[in-house]
UniProtKB/TrEMBL annotation, chains A, B:
Protein name: Hydroxymethylpyrimidine/phosphomethylpyrimidine kinase 2
Superkingdom field: Eukaryota
PANTHER family: HYDROXYMETHYLPYRIMIDINE_PHOSPHOMETHYLPYRIMIDINE KINASE THI20-RELATED, PHOSPHOMETHYLPYRIMIDINE KINASE
GO cellular component terms attached to this protein's record: cytosol
Matching InterPro entries: Haem_Oase-like_multi-hlx (IPR016084), HMP/HMP-P_kinase_dom (IPR004399), PM/HMP-P_kinase-1 (IPR013749), Ribokinase-like (IPR029056), Thiaminase-2/PQQC (IPR004305), Thiaminase_II (IPR027574)
One GO-annotated biological process of the protein: thiamine biosynthetic process
Keyword Ligase: no
GO MF term (any one): thiaminase activity
Length: 578, 578
């Protein structure tokens, strides 16, 4: 437990990824798919729109072109020293003059130009031409030379490469594909080419054999079921699939090929069988720009080329988004872009809410919390009116409780994984031992001998509370235990500070108050220091690994139970009950 | 552990929320903010664009209007029985003819019209008029009567209400605000009005007093620090804030007012001090449409009005997104829309990857896994060539191991929270006891007496493995323990099935093989049935509560360690080492 000050309240920033593309009113492709992808991967997305489409899962019903000068106007707004992106993807650019204007804009940026990913949206999956000839020429001759990474599908690669030299045929084998990717890179001089092989299913065994024979590095897609591609037959998974009535992985695979200065790499995976593939190309290129930008942020510097890992991540994200898609519309539905998103229940601490976890816990049971920390027992302690037998009964039981509470911290030390936490638990155990000594002294003052103290039986309220903490600590992990011990630590601090405030307003007194020592101890610097450290520690742990909704529900349940047991502990003192 | 078949592979669907608004090239407002909000809250977003803006954090540099007929064309694509949304929000509608066309479109839908939220983007935070007069008239007279919920800010509410009757003044008190909201609803007949009070800071104490005096229900915003508004003074949090050098919550609050047929409710919270507020109104109205749609999905039916809870969720999300914003641009920066998003590391099981967790674990250490399940020891068992002393040494140690392995399942029963899991652990403990009996019989056959078996010391490899499992089980929670015991369960199944396959190809034999019984046992129906249930159980637990990245790292570490210890256990047998 380091100093309380080390809980960070600084917001976490995100890299900025811009998409320059068309709008899909249906939300499945274009800038809509791009913005969803960028957000899902952890980036901040902005968009320059080149054309609007009226579109659904069945097709495109209308297109409204945005004038080239307004496309540039949108870009100007971003680049006017305000929202300069870390990476850009180009999608549907629609018209020759738009493409020329964009090429001019980025050429003028010179070395200040961000990492540019171009998805040359020219030929659709079904073979339809999506760009007029003049636009294709502008794309290939003007824009392509400026980009860092191009992501053509097979028909696009054939068109582009053929336009720059001898006409190439549609590839039929892996060797053809590798040759096409290499020719494209050579002829266009684009630093990195990712040739998307989705149009060509290849037998898994042929791919493995060719890759081996040619010494090509192969990255198997980890979004699908594990199989022999991962370097080990998994009989037990195949058996399980059969037992569940599920098909084994297809014998055919899809190969994407990355060629850059470092060589050729194959990204191989089984095809996801799905009709939810609308926007796949948009998603992949947005994911590539995002994973590049995120890697740049992690590394603290921008690389000239995209890494193999970033490409692998983008491909896996896209495959996973197809696999997780739910049916929508009557035609080719959208991907599920948020399939890797889970809801965070406790936000990062911020200046607006620096203790979001403890605030959440207290808000989960405000009435019970108030009954605990504003109990008549502590009110009477503050006024000095609490009957002495009630306090005696309480302090004897609390002495027993403290022994088990100290044991819980021993258990916490056992459950810790780092020496810092072990030390913190051991220190608290020592504090509790000192607190216990104070109890012995107090008891003697109130006429309870150490022998009477030791031999007194435990009341139900005391045993129920201390054993609940120990059981949670044994059953759960160290975080469960932290929450189980927090109500006692924090609640006594709350009582101490509250009584301190009441002293100032005359609602409590230390004069002639037999419990003055008790009040001073729990509002004193040493105890309150421990409370402050406890609060910071708990918030820091939660911020470092925010609980899932299920986990938070369990932690909240533990909190509510220990708050209730604390309240009942005061009541036991007041009633002198067993 | 119920039947293996109950692991669901069905994708989880999302409600569809449409935004009809302008595009903000900077990504912070307009449809960009809306799409980010819808995705963050768990919806599927689509967008009909009414205007493009060239915009950044400093202002709007240009506007390109989309013709009204193309706005309707976009809507037609969605409503042509393909992508009909569950809720719609209207943002910047820009022009009178667009507004009239939209009003006509939705009026013609009649009862088939979805839940409509209107953010009347007419007057900016700074008081600038954003809509021409003709458009304002169309908005108020034609579109407003069709919507389910309107979300004006104070200046907009004054303009709209005044246009429908006696001119109203700018409100100065909570009473004024409540009266304005009520007048607006009465005069426009909009079923629900959410009046956004962001323009008017009010003293916290006045709000509390007025609400009490008028009997208004108050919902305190839980996105900020807990304070006396939550019904309890929290001295301990105030003390902690001071100790951290942080300011206490502002004495002023912001009040949003919801008025509908059920009455008036106040949503009160402290203002987030931030310049990152660009797109706040867009975000709130998109969040309202999303939380309505999500609630509809949860309840299985569409309510006529939005619930208090859904409004509270939308306000808290928006406040939290401002609080979590990081600096971007030189002016009013965007909100952080993904502040509640955390990265899910293991996707939901799908047909593409039905066992994502176990596939992930095995992929995390394929070499070690291969060394374990294809160890020379088991190869020699399959061929019957393993030296008898090696097998004897192994089986004696495995007998010891099984005792602790059974204890680990007893610990699992202790750590379980439901009777079903306790039963499952107890059943496995019984299976292990039976397996152990088989070991005794095997030992006797190989000339090891029960006495020798019991009194044999434990080898280091055996003790290291079994005690590692018990320690993980004691230190962590039940999921840690499930992973710690999984390598033994699943790996022995893998070995059994692999040897079974080798029997078929002649690479293993049962004839004259002294270990035939061992092979049959671990590839037999009873054992493999347990393996299948174990796989389903683990995947189901992970799917129900997907681990955070930190949690997954811990689980992966446990897995890799038990795989290594299993490999070393075979090696210990082969080497007859201690």
């Amino acid at each position: 437990m380091s100093a309380a000050g080390s809980l960070s309240l600084a917001p976490v920033s995100q890299p900025h990824v811009l998409t320059i593309a068309g709008s899909d009113s249906g939300g499945g492709a274009g800038i809509q798919a791009d913005l969803k992808t960028i957000a899902a991967l952890g980036g901040y997305g902005s968009s320059v729109i080149t054309a609007l489409t009226a579109q659904n899962t069945l097709g495109v019903q209308g297109v409204h072109h945005v004038p080239a000068d307004f496309v540039i106007k949108q870009l100007d707004s971003l680049f006017s020293d305000d929202l300069r992106p870390d990476a850009i993807k180009f999608g549907m650019l629609a018209q020759a003059d738009t493409i020329s204007a964009l090429a001019k804009f980025f050429a003028e940026l010179g070395d200040a130009k961000p990492f540019l990913v171009l998805d040359p949206v020219m030929v659709s999956t079904s073979g339809h031409t999506l760009l007029p000839d003049s636009a294709t020429r502008a794309l290939v001759d003007e824009l392509l030379p400026l980009v860092s990474l191009a992501t053509p599908n097979i028909p696009e690669a054939v068109v582009i490469a053929s336009s720059k030299g001898e006409a190439l045929q549609q590839p039929k084998t892996l060797d053809d594909l590798v040759a096409l990717a290499a020719a494209l890179r050579e002829r266009t001089k684009v630093p990195s080419v990712l040739l998307k092989g989705g149009h060509l299913s290849l037998p898994r065994k042929d791919v493995t054999a060719t890759a081996k024979a040619r010494g090509l590095s192969v990255h198997w897609d980890a979004s699908g079921e594990i199989n022999e591609d991962d370097g080990v037959d998994v009989e037990v998974i195949s058996d399980w699939l059969v037992s569940e009535g599920l098909a084994a992985a297809s014998p055919d695979v899809i190969v994407d090929i990355l060629v850059d200065a470092a060589g050729t790499r194959l990204f191989v995976g089984t095809k996801v069988e799905s009709s939810s593939t609308h926007g796949t190309g948009c998603t992949l290129s947005a994911a590539l720009a995002s994973s590049y930008a995120l890697e740049t942020r992690r590394n603290g510097k921008a690389a000239a080329t995209i890494s193999t890992e970033a490409v692998g991540q983008a491909i896996e994200y896209t495959q996973g988004a197809i696999a997780a898609a739910f049916p929508l519309g009557r035609g080719h539905g959208p991907l599920n872009h948020s399939y890797l998103q889970s809801q965070r229940t406790i936000p990062q601490p911020s200046a607006h809410n620096p203790t979001p976890f403890i605030s959440y816990l207290i808000r989960s049971c405000p009435d019970m919390w108030r009954q605990y920390v504003r109990h008549p027992f502590v009110d009477q302690i503050g006024k000095g009116t609490l009957p002495l037998p009630a306090f005696k009964h309480y302090i004897v039981q609390d002495y027993h409780y403290l022994r088990h509470y100290a044991r819980a911290h021993g258990l916490g030390a056992y459950k810790s994984t780092d020496m810092e936490s072990i030390k913190a638990f051991a220190e608290i155990a020592l504090h509790i031992a000192a607190e216990s000594t104070m109890h012995v002294a107090m008891c003697e003052k109130f006429g309870v001998t150490p022998e009477e103290l030791h031999s007194a039986p435990e009341s139900a309220a005391s045993a129920a509370y201390s054993r609940f903490i120990l059981d949670i600590g044994t059953q759960g992990d160290v975080l469960d235990l932290y929450v189980a011990v927090a109500s006692c630590l924090i609640g006594y601090g709350e009582v101490g500070l509250w009584l301190q405030r009441r002293l100032q307003t005359g609602q409590a007194t230390l004069e002639n108050n037999p419990y003055a020592r008790w009040i001073s101890d729990y509002s004193g610097g040493e105890y309150i220091g421990a409370v402050r450290r406890g609060i910071s520690n708990l918030e820091r742990r939660i911020a470092a690994d925010p609980p899932t909704p299920a986990r938070l529900a369990r932690l909240t349940g533990i909190w509510q139970e220990v708050v209730r047991l604390e309240r009942d502990f005061w009541q036991m003192g007041l009633d002198q009950s067993w």
